[in-house]
C-alpha cells in the first residue's frame, strides 16, 4: 500500500487548471466550448524575443547555468526595477525561477515555520493559500468585495495582523479581479505595515504593465522606501511579454531571503531553462513598443466584456483597472433554477451549469476565496468573447 505525504492533504489541485482541462476535454469530445478560464495572452511572443531564443540555441547556450539565473538576466532585471519602479537592486538581490509561481513558492518554503501566518486579501490567486499550506504556514484571509472595489482597507489589514504574521501577500493589478490599488490606497496599507516590523511583504507584480486608462501602477517598496529591507518584489515575463510557456519569473529583495531561495532551487529544479533566460534578457532590455499596442486590444476587450455582462440578468460587473480579468457578481442569479432543473445555490453550480448548457468555461468565485462571483479571462479573440458573453446572457435569461 502506498502512503502519500500528510502535507499533500492540506492542498487542492489548481481550479483554474481544472477548468481549462475540462474545457479542452469537452472540445476534444466534439462539444462547442469557449474557454474563458486560462490567464494567458493569445498574442504570440514578440519576434525580437523569439529570435533571441533561437540565437541562444544556435550559439550553444544550452548548458546548465547558475541555479538562480545567469548574470546577464540578473543585470537586466536590476535595470528594469530602476527604470520602471525607481528601485535600486544589486544582482546579489535577484532570484530567477521557473515562472513566477516557483519564485513565490521558494520564498515561502525558505521562510515559513509551522504556525506562521500569511495575510492574503481575498479574492486571491488560487495558488497563494495552497503554497502557504505546503510550506507549513497558515493563510489568513481578508475579504474585499465589490463594494470596496475588491481592495482591502488599512483597518482590515491592521486587524488581520498578529504576532504570528510572517508575510503579507499583495497583488495589484489583481488576479482574479483586475483591481489596481492607487498610490494613496497603497500608502495607507504601507503605513500599517510600518507599525508591524515583524511582517515581510511579498508583492506579486505580474500584471504591472497591463493597465488601462489613467491608472498608474505602483509597488509597495516604491510607495514606502522604509519597507525596502523587508519587501520581496516579485514579477516575471509571462503576461506582459506573452511568454507564459517560457517559464521565467524573478524577484528582488533582501539578500538573506534571496540566498535561501537559491538554496532551495539548487536542490529542486536547479536553473530555469537557459534558452528562456536569454529570451528574457531581450524581453527586458529590448523594445517595449508592443506593450501599449497589446494594452489597447485588452482594453477594448475589457470594455466589451464588461458592457455585455452588465446586460445579463442577475449579473453585475465592475470595470477593472488592469490585468485581463473581470470578476462579476452573480448575486442576482442565486436561488434561480437552470433549464436542467438544477437550483443555482452558489457560483460553482452556476459555472457548472453554464458549461454544460452553453459551453462556456469560467472559473467559479469560491476558487478565489470570494462568492458569489466568477472570473472571466478576456485574453482571447473579440469574436470568442462576443459569442461567449451572448451565451452567458442567454443562460441568465433562461434561469427561472
From TrEMBL:
Class of enzymatic activity (EC top level): transferase
Keyword Acetylation assigned to the entry: answer is no
Q: Which keywords belong to this entry?
A: Aminotransferase, Pyridoxal phosphate, Transferase
Species this chain originates from: Roseovarius nanhaiticus
Cited Gene3D superfamilies? Aspartate Aminotransferase, domain 1 (3.90.1150.10), Type I PLP-dependent aspartate aminotransferase-like (Major domain) (3.40.640.10)
* Protein name, UniProt field: Aminotransferase
EC nos? 2.6.1.-
CC cofactor: pyridoxal 5'-phosphate
